[in-house]
Backbone:
């Protein structure tokens, strides 16, 4: 079985679980009780908070910040300097002037579903879910859940199209169907009150 590779300057808590084939680069920090799957890459200066769970083949690029209790499923890509936040009402101190401690607030982690990608410097607000194979554009600020296969950009982020499993923007066809120009895979759009859903037409 492949061993994990942890660079000497990385700070990995002894209570973290690191899967085989994973590389943790210089100056990255992995906190206690974090779980990182097989064949992952944790880039230079990245941060993985206490109890955060990463699946297999996850890539955290340089200086990505993943705050607890986030969950990243298999094949997720997190671009450089992305921030997954965990507090909707952040304050350093309470109303009595005391420094807030972990027990003084409720951490809400971000969930990133299988195959999704978050572009460089995007920010995901606490408690949200990024759907399977969705693509969040660079610099976007995501303030609501992102559906599977959605392409979202801007501040606040809004959907401007759909992407397939290859990450390429889909092309519209008749009858609410969409096709990937790279893989030729076909998808079907369902109109909904909140902006639509996409699902594969293949198995």
Residues:
């Amino acid at each position: 079985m492949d061993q994990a590779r942890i660079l000497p300057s990385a700070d990995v808590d002894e209570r973290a679980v690191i899967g085989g084939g994973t590389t943790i680069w210089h100056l990255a920090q992995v906190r206690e009780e974090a779980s990182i799957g097989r064949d992952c890459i944790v880039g230079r200066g990245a941060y993985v908070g206490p109890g955060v769970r990463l699946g297999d083949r996850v890539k955290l690029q340089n200086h990505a910040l993943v705050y607890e209790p986030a969950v990243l499923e298999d094949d997720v890509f997190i671009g450089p300097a992305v921030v997954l936040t965990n507090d909707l009402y952040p304050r350093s101190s309470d109303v009595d002037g005391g420094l807030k401690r972990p027990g003084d607030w409720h951490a809400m982690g971000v969930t990133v579903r299988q195959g999704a990608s978050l572009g460089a410097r995007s920010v995901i607000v606490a408690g949200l879910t990024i759907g399977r194979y969705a693509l969040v554009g660079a610099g976007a600020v995501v303030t609501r859940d992102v559906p599977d296969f959605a392409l979202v950009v801007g501040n606040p982020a809004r959907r401007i199209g759909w992407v397939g499993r290859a990450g390429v923007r889909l092309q519209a066809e008749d009858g609410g169907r969409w096709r990937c120009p790279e893989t030729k895979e076909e998808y079907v759009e369902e109109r909904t009150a909140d902006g639509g859903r996409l699902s594969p037409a293949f198995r």
